[in-house]
Write a structure and sequence with these properties.
disordered N terminus, single chain, about 375 residues, 16-stranded antiparallel β-barrel, Porin
Length: about 375
């Protein structure tokens, strides 16, 4: 349940309850011309992972959907113009802690944050939405939209879990974004520019300058365009984040293609991902995913196969098979279970759920949990 505060004609504050709705790139449609909505998810699971060296059992937060809380609002400004805001933070429900953010889109910019998942303000009209603040990047949406496990938990898309795309792989701070309106016959798109906000000394070059060698770190741009009609959805996305070129860093270029088709009895999805870090010895990674979701009454069955690897020495790569089930007690409460098996090759030693495994060995794990939305 979501508690919505609405301004009544008398100027008093009226509370109304509305059902939970899925988050979308656009500002959520309000229940009235002016509204403020409080919402969230609490998700906890018994999580287990094992490898050839060590295993781990834990109570973990957000293994089906990230535990979160937030508040969003919408105001009709008249003449087809509206304003909105969205503040959303992670909850580590197993400990009561909060999540993190990155204030400069760089490895050294991680901080504890109350609203690290999203903090934006928007202007919306018939021409689309202008959005300012911290938000998901276009590239992440192309990984998340086709993953049956929503890039969360032991079954999550390996192209997301192992991504080499750096601090802006999922979100970016200091962002200016534009979203096409939802009235273009199924076409959708977004464009984003984000800033590392580094000092740039006047008169010195930005490339190989003694004082400006890192002036562009964390600056970047991303975009996505697609089409959805009936059961079919297709999208392409790309991004670049700028970093000074060193042995371990450089500009990060990435692109992806994602598609899904909902046959009603089963929804099939697929994605291809290509990432490159242009360091002194460039590092390239490729990945892909195929997935399916089968609804059956109050139950959903999920399955996926994902793979991700780089061209580093030995061509390390991991492949994962995941299967899960979700049972909905109501629109707001569900129980779930997911099992995954990961195989390493090329010297890789990736693991599941905090376990430890030797190179070229396997890892497996499961999540059994309960999720409640409000």
């Amino acid at each position: 349940m979501r508690i919505v505060a609405k301004a009544a004609a008398s100027g008093t504050l009226v509370l109304a309850a509305v059902g939970a709705a899925a988050q979308s790139p656009q500002v959520a449609k309000p229940v009235s011309a002016d509204s403020v909505t409080f919402f969230g998810i609490v998700d906890l699971a018994l999580s287990y992972g094992t490898g050839s060296i060590a295993s781990l059992t834990q109570l973990a937060s957000g293994r089906s959907s990230t535990s979160r809380w937030g508040v969003r609002g919408y105001e009709d400004l008249g003449g087809g113009l509206a304003a909105g805001f969205w503040l959303e933070g992670q909850i580590n429900a197993d400990t009561g802690g909060t999540g993190t953010s990155n204030f400069n889109n760089q490895p050294d910019g991680t901080i504890n944050a109350l609203f690290g998942r999203r903090s934006t303000v928007s202007l919306i009209d018939l021409w689309g939405e202008l959005r300012l603040g911290r938000d998901f990047t276009s590239l992440f949406r192309n990984r998340d939209d086709v993953d049956p496990f929503s890039t969360t938990g032991v079954g999550a898309n390996l192209a997301d879990v192992l991504s080499i795309d750096g601090p802006t792989a999922t979100r970016a701070s200091n962002m200016v974004g534009y979203f096409l309106p939802p009235s273009l016959g199924g076409f959708f798109g977004e464009a984003q520019y984000f800033m590392g906000e580094n000092t740039n000394v006047s008169g010195l070059p930005n490339v190989n300058g003694l004082l400006n060698v890192n002036a562009d770190d964390g600056d970047g741009y991303a975009g996505r365009v697609g089409w959805a009609s009936g059961g079919l959805a297709v999208a392409v996305a790309g991004s670049r984040t700028r970093f000074a070129r060193t042995v371990t860093s450089g500009d990060i270029d990435a692109y992806s293609i994602a598609a899904s088709y909902d046959f009603q009895v089963v929804k099939l999805s697929a994605g291809y991902y290509h990432d490159e870090v242009k360091q002194l010895l460039p590092l390239t990674a490729t990945g892909y995913l195929v997935g399916a979701v089968v609804p059956l009454g109050l139950t959903q069955f999920k399955m996926s196969y994902s793979s991700y690897g780089t061209d580093a020495a030995g061509d390390p790569r991991a492949d994962k098979i995941a299967a899960g089930v979700v049972y909905s007690f109501s629109k707001r409460t569900s129980a779930y279970g997911t099992y995954a098996y990961l195989r390493n090759r090329g010297g890789a030693s990736y693991t599941l759920n905090g376990s430890i495994t030797a190179p070229d060995s396997h890892s497996s794990g499961f999540d059994i949990g309960l999720k409640h939305s409000f």
